[in-house]
Known about the structure:
- The chain has 9 helices and 4 strands, in the order H-H-H-H-H-H-H-E-E-H-E-E-H.
- Helix content is 50%, strand content 12%.
- It has a domain at 2-114.
- Helix 5 (64-75) runs antiparallel to helix 8 (135-148) and helix 6 runs antiparallel to helix 7 (96-112).
- A two-stranded antiparallel ribbon has the order 1-2.
- Zinc ion binds at residues 152, 154-155, 157, 170-171, 173-174.
- Zinc ion is lined by residues 152, 154-155, 157, 170-171, 173-174.
Amino acid sequence: MQILRENHAQILCLCVYNPIEYDLLPLTVEYIMSVKTFEELAIKYPLLFQKAKIKALEIEDGWLHIIDTLCAVISGHPENIQRSIIYEQDKLTRDHDRISKLEAELAKLIEDLPVIAQVKEKFGGLRFYVYGGTEEHRNFIRFAEAMTYRTCEQCGAPGETRNTGWMKTLCDRHHKELEAKENGYRASPKKFDPAKLED
Ligand SMILES: [Zn+2]
């Protein structure tokens, strides 16, 4: 989590000028691995989450893979640019113009990143609120939000949005479980027992 407390310039230096530290960043094998918690997500996308205003996701785990994918495309794969910079710097004859161009590209990518303001469920769908970002980022967000209306919020299986007193997007199994739970509540309402009244 140390990386989250650094600023952009420091991360840039860390990534660009220290190949050993760079290899330790969660941008290689971990990049294709699924995340299971908000903390794992924040570690996987340090550039994006060090700008974020949130400390948690207000959703169930079933949508985590959608948010993980969304964060990957929004982040713009900075590790590819970082690798190119390191490759250029390791060459015997350095192309300084090419390195400057790549560094500018990376800095622009970081500057353009949106600030994540809130991630929550509303009316059965994902709401991924951001400040800033580009039109391309907003299109990615719209697509991810649309996908959640077809994905069970509890387990990630294909689902649909249902009205169970409030709107929830669930697979058949979790919908049935929720219905059984709610019917259970309705079937055994709490009875008023004056003997249990406290003084
Ligand atoms: Zn489910």
